[in-house]
């Protein structure tokens, strides 16, 4: 088992997706054939992580527990942490401090979808770093909308700025963060920004000042979706559908990953097949048994 622990940040009010999120958490919306939160959970599982804290709002917690159970169906363990109010991404490390208990962590945002053939290798490389933080840079056409990382002439990280009016590079920081055990202490030192939030960029700046921030670039062969708008939600769903229909392979299936990793046996997978027996997802899982 990985010594790292996982965090899925699935809080917030989802106001950018109103009216579809008025009665349902954004991270429980369908992304083609699975709940959105399956995709970030699958990233943590691909990183070898079996202890995962899910941070969500008090009013949404029951829905998540119904959708996900305790994690045993995938050979993993969920811990539930309530976020009373969404006060910035860095707040997650303060809320999860007791859960982490000094362990290094991987946090993934509950509305982020990642895909790429080389992803497991990229994740393993980040996980092998015992000190500091590793984040992933992804080239975007509209850098003003993101936290942007810039580099010096030697390729080292020179700055990280939240939503810069004049971006110094086209590389956005994705919603996937590998951090060592000092992350909660650093998060406590973050001062709220002008918009009143504990910004993740302020936390990462502390690692940058220490000289322990690594940025891995996700190149042409990777896809990253931040599904916070109606358009991007549809784009991500269509992307998953296209890949699955063309290749006959699942994207972001915790059931498949758990079985591949040997975390669940055939009997456990059979019970999942029976649960989903009437649809393509269930038929796909049944195919794994052959």
Structure description:
Residues 5-240 form the Nucleotidyl transferase domain. Belongs to the glucose-1-phosphate thymidylyltransferase family. It catalyses: dTTP + alpha-D-glucose 1-phosphate + H(+) = dTDP-alpha-D-glucose + diphosphate. Helix 10 (266-275) packs antiparallel against helix 11 (280-288). Strands 1, 4, 5, 6, 8, 9, 10, 11 and 12 form a 9-stranded mixed beta sheet that branches. The protein has 290 residues and is an alpha/beta fold. The protein has 11 helices and 13 strands. Strand 4 (51-56), helix 2 and strand 5 form a beta-alpha-beta unit.
> What form results from the Cα inertia axes?
globular
Cα-to-Cα separation, first versus last residue:
27 Å
| Helical proportion, percent range | 25-40%
Structural category is alpha/beta
The largest β sheet comes out as:
9 strands, mixed
Work out the helix count.
Answer: 11
- Mean model confidence by pLDDT: 95
User: What Rg do the Cα atoms give?
Assistant: 18 Å
